[in-house]
Design goal:
Elements: H1 3-18, H2 29-41, H3 46-57, H4 62-76, H5 80-87, H6 90-95, H7 111-132, H8 137-150, H9 162-210
Helix pairs in contact: 1-2, 1-3, 3-4, 4-7
């Protein structure tokens, strides 16, 4: 393993992030092929590649984190050595992708990208568990941790978490409260206006009776 190849791996990962199609969620194929060839020629580059991936996984941009998740999944599906490296650091991977510790490691913005990152990662992790749990016990351990902290339902096809469902319900309740306040204010204003109209009519009738 040469220092030049290590730097090339890091540079290629950075370029993959720059060229990532956020709308289509697609990795740049020429750069992906280049990275694949580098790793294929020298498996000793895998730890360096994983380090580069985790370094970028800490980016304060959920779109960039999503790029890394898709990149990790690509190699996870193709390399036993890569799977071993990832499962050894699986808890850190989940911390930065599914808000495993929202108090100290909340997902960065933009909000829509953070939601997408979480859903995509959970769906990918579900696939990993289904396909590889037999050969990698740490996947089962990570699943247990995830279920206990996120109460994630693997049966849900949209990958939505209990936290996310609670957040959506809280948003709905807040909206209902705001809507009710608006309606109450309109009714109050209408009642107040109606009272003024009634007073004006009485005053007019009194004036007419005095003429």
């Amino acid at each position: 393993m040469s220092l030049g190849n290590v730097e090339e791996v890091k540079r290629t990962v950075r370029n993959l992030i720059k060229k990532f199609d956020y709308d289509k969620r697609e990795l740049n194929q020429p750069l992906l092929k280049k990275l694949k060839e580098l790793i294929k020629r020298d498996a000793q580059l895998i730890p360096e590649f994983v380090d580069a991936a985790f370094m970028n996984l800490k980016s304060q941009d959920s779109d960039k984190r999503l790029c890394i998740v898709l990149l990790v999944d690509y190699f996870f599906q193709r390399s036993h050595a890569f799977r071993l490296a990832i499962v050894d650091s699986l808890q850190d991977f989940l911390v930065y992708t599914v808000e495993l510790d929202p108090l100290y490691f909340p997902l960065p913005g933009p909000p829509e990208a953070a939601t997408t990152l979480e859903k995509e990662t959970l769906q990918i992790f579900k696939l990993w568990v289904e396909k590889y749990v037999g050969g990698y016990p740490k996947l089962e351990n990570a699943k247990t941790v995830l279920l206990s902290s996120k109460t994630f339902d693997f049966a849900r096809s949209d990958g939505q978490t209990e936290v996310e469902r609670n957040r959506a319900e809280a948003d709905r309740i807040r909206k209902d409260i705001v809507d009710k306040k608006i309606i109450d204010q309109v009714l109050f204003d209408f009642a107040d206006s109606k009272a003024h109209v009634k007073e004006s009519i009485i005053e007019a009738q009194t004036t007419i009776s005095l003429i």
